[in-house]
Amino acid sequence: MAQSPIWEKSMEREADIRKKALRQRINAERSALSPHDRAEKCRSIYRNVTEHPAFLRARIIYIFVDAKGETDTREIIRQAWCTGKRVAVPRIENKRMQFYYIENFTDLNPGHFGIEEPKAECRPAENMKDALMVMPGVVFDRQRNRIGYGGGYYDRYLSEHPDLPTIAIAFSLQVLEKIPSEAHDIKPDILITDNCVH
Length: 198
Description:
Blueprint: H1 5-31, H2 35-50, H3 53-57, E1 60-63, H4 74-82, E2 86-93, E3 96-102, E4 108-110, E5 116-118, E6 131-135, E7 139-141, E8 146-147, H5 153-160, E9 166-169, E10 175-176, E11 190-192
Parallel strand pairs: 1-2, 1-6, 6-9, 7-10, 9-11
Antiparallel strand pairs: 2-3, 4-5, 7-8
């Protein structure tokens, strides 16, 4: 028997409230990490990503520039450049996310939400062959379900590029046993933390 639209809307609202509460809680825990603990965890995540076969195979890395307490991605980007890979990072345009190649960090400017984005002169990244996306998230579970920042940018982008392999990175404190998920939420293929690969 089909559920009524009112019931479905009520369930969506309840899931949104739970997601918001989880975002707030995990963001607070992430912000409370000491500089020493954060640096140690970032080093572990860096090793787990850059030694992973998916990273080693890829010729192009689609990756976010860390901000607001996220695990460091700049060392991952540097390692990609050092091993001859091309690097593309996102820019928000008309409420959509597009990726552009950068060749050094001077190719970035403060952009949407204060996050660094590629400058206007950077070339669009359109090649998905031999590429890998390294993506963020706020909360995950052991089944790789993901709660992002609420904008839906990665869900929309990945629904348009379903063959692009994905690794999500996070501190282990961001991974819970089970989180609310919906049909349109896209799971990363792999979830890498400072102490585990899911």
